[in-house]
Amino acid sequence: xxxxxxxxxxxxxxxxxxxxxxxxxxxxxxxxxxxxxxxxxxxxxxxxxxxxxxxxxxxxxxxxxxxxxxxxxxxxxxxxxxxxxxxxxxxxxxxxxxxxxxxxxxxxxxxxxxxxxxxxxxxxxxxxxxxxxxxxxxxxxxxxxxxxxxxxxxxxxxxxxxxxxxxxxxxxxxxxxxxxxxxxxxxxxxxxxxxxxxxxxxxxxxxxxxxxxxxxxxxxxxxxxxxxxxxxxxxxxxxxxxxxxxxxxxxxxxxxxxxxxxxxxxxxxxxxxxxxxxxxxxxxxxxxxxxxxxxxxxxxxx
Length: 302
Hints:
Elements: H1 11-32, H2 37-57, H3 63-79, H4 82-99, H5 106-126, H6 130-147, H7 157-185, H8 188-207, H9 213-245, H10 253-281, H11 286-301
Helix pairs in contact: 1-2, 1-6, 2-3, 2-8, 3-6, 4-5, 4-9, 7-8, 7-11, 8-9, 9-10
């Protein structure tokens, strides 16, 4: 129940309970670092994303709270992102190599991957203030927990259900629009926006899953697959940015040309894959989804 709203329970209490669990787990992993500081940061950032998804779901009833806490979480995550961003570029090469896109150019991609791994390790070594940033993140999490006392959501069951259904449908509608824009424009920013919207949809259906377990589990799995594909595509776009800003970190012009060709082919396949995956996930209108969630949540709440 750590990331699930219990039907029939007061909504403010449920959101606070879930948020406290996410904050506590982020603090725990940042303090203990069982698998090292960088894995701890990665795990904590996942908790921050879950918190942002939770607060986004109830945003309409607490806009000031959402604006403040969303900014707190976003800015905190950004202070811990440098090594993770460098790691994502290495993973982008791993995925390119595993996809078979390299073909006879595999040695070129392996050489680029080795350089990016060296770059990642150098960034990690140079992060001399990492302990201070982790300590600051823990303090910010504690501030976030205290701020939960300010949250006030509808106490009446009917209004609480309407808030959850509308919050889910609003983000879902943005996902539908983002898909349409991405297909039409092909712009990496539009595909990235789709990724964010699908990730939030994944969080929202998990939060509401006790009202609709079977269907929510299926939707969650589809969203996970689409999110992974879109994440791979976003890493390719980050790699493209590095090519533009620091080509020497990649390699020679010939190697970069090979990499570009592989990236273009891989990105096109990922976009085709996402279109096929999400056609059912995003097939309903936002109004239809909102009506369905309202009815199911009302039944589950008793």
